[in-house]
Amino acid sequence: MNKIKSIVVASLALAVGLVSCDSGNMRRTPGHIYAPDMTYSRAYDAYTSNPNFEDGLTSRKPVTGTISRGQEMPDHMVEGDTSYYKTFNTSLRFTDNDIDEGRRLFNIYCGICHGTGLDGQGPLYTNGKFASMPANLKDAKYLHMPAGQMYAAIKYGKNMMGAYASQLDIKQRWMVIAYIKKVQSENGGDAYTYAASATSAPAPAADTAAKAN
Fold this sequence. Notes:
Layout: H1 2-21, H2 36-39, H3 82-87, H4 96-109, H5 111-114, H6 123-126, H7 140-143, H8 147-156, H9 170-185, H10 208-212
């Protein structure tokens, strides 16, 4: 009798164990979790209030004095400082692929006015949208223009041309200028000086003027 009783008890215990292990993916008593805030971390949407910071903001500003990976040093250019424009330049050097990217960016942002041939014959002019022709970058007036002046025009705009600082970051602006200067050098302009050497990659360093600061 005792043997039968033991078998019944063992069977019941086994049945309870099996049922507790397979509850059809529905467990009403999952037990306790050690440090649940680490297991189930609380997420905050970018623009919601966040009690973990004194200012209550979830989106954080970059740490002072730091630069995002892949970005260049600030150019320290001040709008209206035309003397600085004329001497400003970069230590960046560009491969053929970089120049091709500069050409692509030029055609997207500049070609509509200046023309994909850099001759001022962009569709906005040829279709009669502008009364006067945009700058012909192959004209003698622009063939020898300092690169810093071109950079300032892209960053701040000039005359009828709006600023493109929000569309092009620092490296992209120089890619566009390097492409322009390469084309100009093939059309009577100054010698092209932005080519990367065969033994080195394009310098990740910042603008030479920024280094001085």
